[in-house]
Amino acid sequence: MIHSRGSVSGTSYGGESAAMAWEDDLFALLDDLEQQAEALYDVERGHELADRSRAEYQQVTLASRLMASVGGDVVLDVRGVGVVNGVLERVGTGWCLVGGSGQDWIVALAAVLSVRAASERSSPEVAWSPVARLGLGSALRRLAEAGERCVLRLDDGRLLDGTVRRVGADFVEMAVGEDGRAVLVPYAGLAAVQSR
User: Fold this and answer.
1) Which superkingdom heads the taxonomic lineage of this protein's source (predicted)?
2) Number of C-alpha atoms within 13 angstroms, CB side, residue 81?
3) Residue 81 CB neighbour total at 10 angstroms
4) What's the rounded Cα separation, in Å, for the pair 94 and 108?
5) Quick one: 133 and 189 in the same domain?
6) Averaged over 102-114, what is the pLDDT?
C-alpha cells in the first residue's frame, strides 16, 4: 500500500539515506584501511630501498669517486707526505695526478688517507676510457721517458731526489745522488711522486 508520505507498506524512504550513510561510512573505513596499508608498504619499501642502496654503494671505489671529481679542486691527505691539494687532473688504476701550485703530484691511491672536496657522484670503472685504466707503472714510465728530476715520497716520510730510470712490474728504479746510484722502490712503499 502506498501512502502519500513516501512509504510503501510501512517502510519509509528515509531508510535510503541511512543506507547511504552506512555505505559512506564503510567506504571511508575501507579508504582508511587502504591508506594504512600503503603507509606500511612505503615504510617496508623504504627500508628495502635503503638496504639496496647500501649494498650497491659498497661497489663504489675511491678511484670511481675521484674520477667523477676530475677537473675540480681536491685535498688529499697522503701517508708520508701530508696534505696535497690542487686540481685533480687525471685518475688511473691505483693512482691520480694532482696539479698544484707550480708542481704536479702523482699520488698512489694506496697511500691516500683521506680526500676532501670530492664529487658526490662516482664514475664506474666500466665507463672509463682505456687510457684511464692504465696503472701506476704507466705514469712512472712517462716520467722515465721524460728524464726529468723528481722527488719520490715514500710512505714512511723519506724522500728520494733524482731521476726515474726504469719501471718494473711492481717497483720503480731511481737514479739518486751525484753518482746516480740505483735505488729500487716497491710500489707498496711509494706514496707520491713530486715534480721539481
Assistant:
1) Bacteria
2) 29
3) 21
4) 6
5) yes
6) 96
Residues 177 and 185 sit within 8 Å (Cβ to Cβ): no
φ and ψ of 179, to 5 deg: -85, -5
Q: Are residues 89 and 178 in the same domain?
A: yes
Residue 195 has pLDDT above 50, yes or no: yes
Contact present, 167 and 134 (Cβ < 8 Å): no
Beta bridge partners of 159: 153
DSSP-based three-state secondary structure for 167: strand
* 4-13, 112-121, 167-176: segment of lowest average pLDDT: 4-13
Q: How far apart are CA 24 and CA 18, in angstroms?
A: 10
pTM: 0.72
What does each C-alpha distance from 35 to 25, 39, 42, 66 come to in angstroms?
15, 6, 10, 44
Domain membership flag for residue 7: no
Q: C-alpha cell of 143?
A: 716520467
> 116 is written with which cell numbers?
676532501
DSSP 8-state symbol, 132: G
Asked if residue 83 lies in contact with residue 107, where contact means CB atoms within 8 angstroms, the answer is: no
107 and 27 both lie in a single domain: no
More confident residue, 49 or 188: 188
DSSP 1: -
CA distance 120 to 161: 36
